[in-house]
Design goal:
single chain; seven-stranded mixed sheet; alpha/beta; 11 strands; about 200 residues
């Protein structure tokens, strides 16, 4: 186990196959990369690479932490330059982990590169090609494209109840592209949400 945790932060542990860059994510989120299930954790983040799938060790770690009802989230990394995508990774994770919710979907440029996320709650687009990151209302075509996903997400949130994520009952999947900063801010806000409790 490696540790680069800031002593002033809560205990956040990151798990996942090396192809999903859990060590790099641990550094970004001031967390601890672990290859063992740590029950004394405030949040467990599972990093997955859609092109590599989810290895048996990562599945076993998820299952081991299920008994503790820890807040858990899945970070889908390595979306840049890959033929696999966020949706494929979430479908796979739904089969081997628990049911995941997707509060954000990835938007791509004309060349197919991930550039933005759409927030399914507010329908705002978070554009990571601008500095600083900008938010704007989505176009009607985007609203139509995500309508079914949004409906499923809002229904899952309503069914789970308020604070379900913090209680370890609802598991969000967040798309991340380290090189472009995509999703990093969102994961950090979820870490802060857990730390506030």
């Amino acid at each position: 186990m490696s540790s680069s945790q800031n002593p002033n932060t809560h205990r956040v542990h990151i798990y996942g196959h090396a192809s999903a860059q859990p060590k790099a994510l641990a550094e970004i989120f001031e967390a601890i990369h672990s290859t063992e299930a740590i029950a004394e954790s405030d949040l467990a983040i599972f990093a997955i690479n859609p092109a590599a799938g989810i290895d048996q060790e990562t599945i076993a770690l998820w299952q081991a932490l299920s008994d503790y009802q820890l807040p858990r989230l899945v970070v889908v990394n390595e979306l840049d330059g890959s033929d696999s995508d966020f949706d494929d990774a979430v479908l796979l994770a739904n089969r081997v982990f628990d049911f995941l919710v997707t509060p954000y979907l990835v938007l791509h440029s004309d060349s197919g590169e991930p550039t933005a996320l759409i927030d399914l709650e507010s329908l705002q687009i978070i554009d990571y090609t601008t500095k600083p990151i900008s938010r704007r209302d989505s176009d009607p075509e985007h609203k139509d494209l995500v309508a079914e996903f949004r409906s499923e997400y809002l229904e899952a949130i309503e069914d789970a109840g308020e604070d379900a994520f913090e209680a370890g009952l609802l598991f969000p999947a967040i798309p991340v592209v380290i090189s472009k900063g995509i999703g990093i801010d969102i994961v950090k806000s979820l870490i802060e949400k857990v730390q506030a409790n």
